[in-house]
Amino acid sequence: MLNISENSISKFVKLSNFKSYQYLNDRDPKKKRVYNGIVIIILLLIFVFVPWTQNIKGKGYVTTLLPEQRPQPVQSIISGRLEKWYVREGNYVNKGDTLIYITEVKNDYFDPNLISRTQEQVNAKSESITSYDDKVIALKSQLASIRESRMLKLEQVRNKIIQTKNKIEIDSIDLNAYKIKYEIAVNQYKRTKELHDQGLKSLSELQEKELKQQEVYAAYLSQQNKLENQKNMLINFKLELSSTEQDYQQKISKTNSDIQSALSAKLDARSNTSKLKNQLSNYQQRQNLYYITSPTNGYITKTIKKGTGQLIKEGTDILTIMPANYDLAVEIYVKPQDLPLLRINDHCRLQFDGWPAMVISGWPEKSTGIFSGKIFALDQHISNNGKYRVLIAPDEKDKRWPENLRVGTGTYTFILLKDVPIWYELWRNLNGFPPDFYRANEDHNSGESDVKTKAPIKSVK
């Protein structure tokens, strides 16, 4: 006993009469220690051969599976001044509901009749296009008239040339006739003179022949001058033909130039009209942007801009909306040395903050309060924190994740690998070796590989 009292009960109670005392008093402490040691050794030997599931641990948080399901900031495309709020934090909104109304802050858009005035400019430019069309039609008609007039004028000059040629031919014949007459008159004068010298002809007859000779010679010279005039006239008509061709060609060229100028002005007016229409459309769309609407169905989670009268710039976050319908996922980060061990659809165990759990990482089936998942995506590029991001989706074959789970909840994750004995896992950790790369269900003798081989690189001499 404890012997804390001076009064002993050994005189009244005999311990040897009790079976429990006799049982404990008869046992040998050395044998007991040996027995306990053997039992402990046997238990340790059994324990080291118990299967242990290798795993990769990681911390992360709850997110959504798809990008469009994650919290979305609402921004203003244009600069403006906050005039009115239609929602507050916690409100549920449908897609297209009005959230905020802003007013204009740029002096280029202060005119209340800006759209109507721009529409007037568009109408005026459109009418100018019609006038240019009419001008082009008139110029083309004028061009056709000039070409017809040129054809008639050239035909007229050509007829004059033909007539002149005919006159030259007639005058040439007449000139030959006058030349013959002149030669005859000269012969007659000579014979009459010879006869006058012999006294056979009178002086009057001689003078008559001389006068006739002079008259014929004068007619011959007149006909010769007439022929030269006709030849000169032919040359003038040919020059007139060339000059007429050049004059009308200049008129045609000028008219074509006017047509091209009108077409160019028409295209310029059409371009300006398109610019004005574009500007008008921009003004109309800008007025629609004064009311900022919800991009999706969801809940207003946070308002970044507060109050009214505050100026905002384009692209500035105003508030945040959490979509109402979303698929949960877990985002964790693993070390680069663990990334080659992971595959899509690998099983994971998840512990969420706020949900009680008892976790045994090596025996996930014995843990309670944890949930299952599968690897949905692996990043191909390292993150800024020096780790790789892994996205885990719920395992539909296992129990569902908690309904009250929200985006942003902290998560502790175990990515399950190969089952090995405990002694092997202890030995691996003591030596700092990584977990086994190959899985038990992989066929290493098949000779198949997912890695694409490259052609050998040829040496360059």
TrEMBL record:
Keywords: Coiled coil, Membrane, Transmembrane, Transmembrane helix. Residues 227-286 form a coiled coil. It comes from the Bacteria. The chain crosses the membrane at residues 34-52. The keyword Lipid metabolism does not apply. Gene3D superfamilies: 2.40.50.100. The keyword Transmembrane helix applies. PANTHER family: INNER MEMBRANE PROTEIN YIAV-RELATED, MEMBRANE FUSION SUBUNIT OF EMRAB-TOLC MULTIDRUG EFFLUX PUMP. This is Multidrug resistance efflux pump.
